[in-house]
Amino acid sequence: MNPKRLAWDFDHHAPDAEKVKLHEDVRVRCHDLARALNEYIPDCREKSLAVTNIEQAMFWANAALARNPRPDEVRSE
């Protein structure tokens, strides 16, 4: 793996005001979906997995917002 890419992925990416708003929007929309599923689906393993996957989607979406766009020199291997 490209060392610059690896360093970029594990670095802190401080958000500007626009990105903070986008991060908040992702969290709100994911929370809305989780809340809706919580109302519709009985408590069970599948519900827990669905909520876990919503959390994962939220984390990856926020990582994508934080890391991108990234400098050209770290785009690929």
Can you put this structure into words, describing what you see?
- The protein is mainly α and about 80 residues long.
- The chain has helices at about 5-10, 15-40, 45-65.
- The chain is elongated and about 45 Å long.
Query: Mean pLDDT across all residues, rounded?
Result: 90
The secondary-structure element order is HHH
Biggest sheet descriptor: none
User: What is Rg?
Assistant: 16 Å
Tell me how many strands there are. Answer: 0
Shape assignment: elongated
Query: Which percent range fits the helix content?
Result: over 70%
Helices, by number, come to 3
Structural class: mainly alpha
Could you give the distance between the termini? Answer: 6 Å
Q: Secondary-structure map with pairings?
A:
Blueprint: H1 3-10, H2 17-40, H3 45-67
Helix pairs in contact: 2-3
Key words describing this protein structure:
mainly alpha, 77 residues, single chain
